Amino acid sequence: IVAGRWFLTVACGISSYYTLPWLIGILGLTYLGLAAAALCEVLEVRKTWAAALCGAMLSVFPAMASTFAYMFTMDGYMMALLLAVLAVLLVKKYRFGFLPGALCLALSMGIYQAYLPFAMILSVFSIWRLLPGKAPEGAGGKKSAWLQEKIVSALRYLYMGILGAISYYAILQVLLKLQGKQLADYQGIEGVASGAAAEIGLIGGLKSMYADFAAFTLKGNVLFQNVFSLGALVLLAVLVLAAAFVLLGRRKFRKKPLILALIALSAAALPAMTNIILLLSPSVNYHLLMRYQWVLYLIGAVALISSCDFRGKAGVWAEWAGLAAASVLVFCYCITDNIAYANLQKKYEKTYAYCIRLLDRIEQTEGYYPGIPIAMIGVVGEEQFPVADLTLSVTSGMIGMSGDSLLYKGENYREFIRHYLGATLNILPAEAMGEMYYSEEYMSMDSFPGPDS
């Protein structure tokens, strides 16, 4: 709860509080499948090939692979994703759907706040679906009522977002008060309550949001990693521009400058919505788990291409090209994910082997007895152990998937050795080692596995 995730315990509790990959996997993939179906309904995807690719993109996007590195919360995170999509779907389907939609958004943020941008981008896409409707012929009351209905429908998404965010924050404050706790400094979450974003100002915040969006999109080593994925992305972009040009021309939007301006303005705001977390919490470590919303641009492209009737042979070729480009991306992401999973398995095996050596050295140390207080200081150093991870060119941007070791802190080693090696060590908490860390004796000591460590 001190990380602002007051509903995560409930969401993950369905699969118990043990890490049971089979059960967690089934639940997580069920939530993900339902989210894919709801997403197709929101975007009005009606063609089988497009619906299949939308589900495939959700499943194989590298941010999802990184989520699987945190198996103990994976089912909860997938529930949060489903709730974020349902929030938008309820607004789209029902007149007062913004009320249950706000509850869904609050619960989603209560599990993991990073899915807020997912709901925001999807809301913009839904509003765009409202715009092409044909106004009644002639001037007067009917056209005015039609326009008013469009505006009211679009505002419901805003109501849902505002009510959802307020509900999330209000529930968080009540629960913190009841439990006598306060927000931790983890990932800058305490900055949301203290208004840390105000320190850098709106302009500074917007600059960092757009700069980060461009940097991750072009150099993040996630959206594309080779000429095949890059070519598929370029082809999708060309098809999207062609589809948008056809739709705008067919709906005669050139005669509706206000609607064109709204579309352009909202499109320009999408990078800011994608990175809204940076505005709320500027000090956040913005890793891949928090960037899953980028997949919506790929899914949105597939949805637009499949729904645009190019007429004649051009439409057939456009659909085949869209199918080919999206399929290549899915295949490339599959390869990326499986390379990451292979490295994750190797990380476990390297960690297991390291802990066997560590435990053996501890038990062989003169004067050791079961229960003796043990200080574990520092981290596994690359100077002692040259990097053995061969996947960095692929997994460098995938949190949880790159590197050689699973463990970082003494308490992690204590639990791993206890549960996997069957030995209980009395490893001291980090705060008990403050003076020791700066002692002359420690500074002159070798790091493990040095003979004087």
How would you portray this structure in words?
By secondary structure, the chain is mostly helical. The protein has 19 helices and two strands. The chain has helices at residues 8-13, 21-42, 48-60, 62-68, 71-93, 98-111, 116-130, 141-179, 190-194, 197-219, 227-250, 257-274, 276-280, 295-307, 312-364, 392-395, 410-420, 434-437, 440-443; strands at residues 373-374, 426-427. Strands 1-2 form a two-stranded parallel sheet. Helix 2 (21-42) runs parallel beside helix 5, helix 3 packs antiparallel against helix 14 (295-307) and helix 6 (98-111) runs parallel beside helix 8 (141-179).
What general outline do the C-alpha atoms trace?
elongated
> Unreliable stretches, pLDDT < 50, 5 or more residues?
none
Sketch the major β-sheet.
2 strands, parallel
Number of helices: 19
* Average pLDDT rating: 88
Structural class: mainly alpha
Percent helix among the residues?
A: 55-70%
Strand content: under 5%
**Distance separating the two termini:** 38 Å
Query: Would you count the extended β strands for me?
Result: 2
Short description:
The chain has 453 residues and is mainly α. The protein is 67% helix and 1% strand.
Write the layout of secondary structure elements.
Layout: H1 8-13, H2 21-42, H3 48-60, H4 62-68, H5 71-93, H6 98-111, H7 116-130, H8 141-179, H9 190-194, H10 197-219, H11 227-250, H12 257-274, H13 276-280, H14 295-307, H15 312-364, E1 373-374, H16 392-395, H17 410-420, E2 426-427, H18 434-437, H19 440-443
Parallel strand pairs: 1-2
Helix pairs in contact: 2-3, 2-5, 3-14, 3-15, 5-6, 5-7, 5-8, 6-8, 7-8, 7-12, 11-14, 11-15, 14-15, 15-17
